[in-house]
Amino acid sequence: MKRLRWLLLLVVVLVLAACSDKVEEQDTPEQGEEVGFSLTGDSIEEAENIPEDEKKAILEAFNVYITSFNEKNLDAYMDMISDHSESFDKEEELEYIETFFADYDLVRDPTDITIVKYQEDEAQVFSTLGHKLKQLSSGLEKEESARQVTVFTKEEGNWKVKSVHSIGENPTAQ
């Protein structure tokens, strides 16, 4: 429930920003962190200070995060969620994702994958996510897309998802 409130608040703020004549990046950190990319901006630029081995590891972590979800691999998906996330309660996420996987087929197709911010212990990956959603009980299908920044944190040498910020349709929103 806490996650839903934060997601709704984020969507409202982003919609209001999108309706403005002038698009500005937020200077105020949300939930104790600052996303280094405006989801409503047109320019996507890769961070310049990424060591090649870290870039490879971050992009691989993003790939595992997306692939494990698409394949409904609950263990692999949950392993990608940070134990220190400010956005996810792992127990709530597990319960929600189990139900979601049972009720829907969802395939996420990321494009424009770009590391837009990098620090030694945190990275932000921008992507445009195409979603193909099918409700299993009714057979209804829907296609949509969203712009997303996935924030990763480094835990014990591995990159884990700390939070997700998106604008547009998000079929997994609680």
Structure description:
- This protein is α+β, with helices and mostly antiparallel strands.
- The protein is 33% helix and 32% strand.
- A four-stranded antiparallel sheet has the order 1-2-3-4.
- The protein is globular.
- Mean pLDDT is 80; it is low at 1-33.
Distance between the termini: 8 Å
**Helix and strand run:** HHHHEEEE
Q: Detail the poorly predicted runs.
A: 1-33
Q: What overall form do the CA principal axes indicate?
A: globular
Query: In which range does the helix fraction lie?
Result: 25-40%
Task: Assign the CATH architecture.
Answer: Roll
Percent range for β-strand residues? 25-35%
Report the count of strand segments. Answer: 4
Mean pLDDT: 80
Give the topology, please.
Blueprint lengths: L1 H18 L32 H19 L3 H6 L10 H14 E16 L2 E14 L5 E15 L2 E11 L6
Antiparallel strand pairs: 1-2, 2-3, 3-4
Which keywords apply here?
single chain, 174 residues, alpha+beta, Nuclear Transport Factor 2, Chain: A, 4-stranded antiparallel sheet, 4 strands, 33% helix, 32% strand, disordered N terminus
How would you concisely characterize the structure shown here?
With 174 residues, the chain is an alpha+beta fold. It has four helices and four strands; from the N terminus they run ααααββββ. The protein has a four-stranded antiparallel beta sheet.
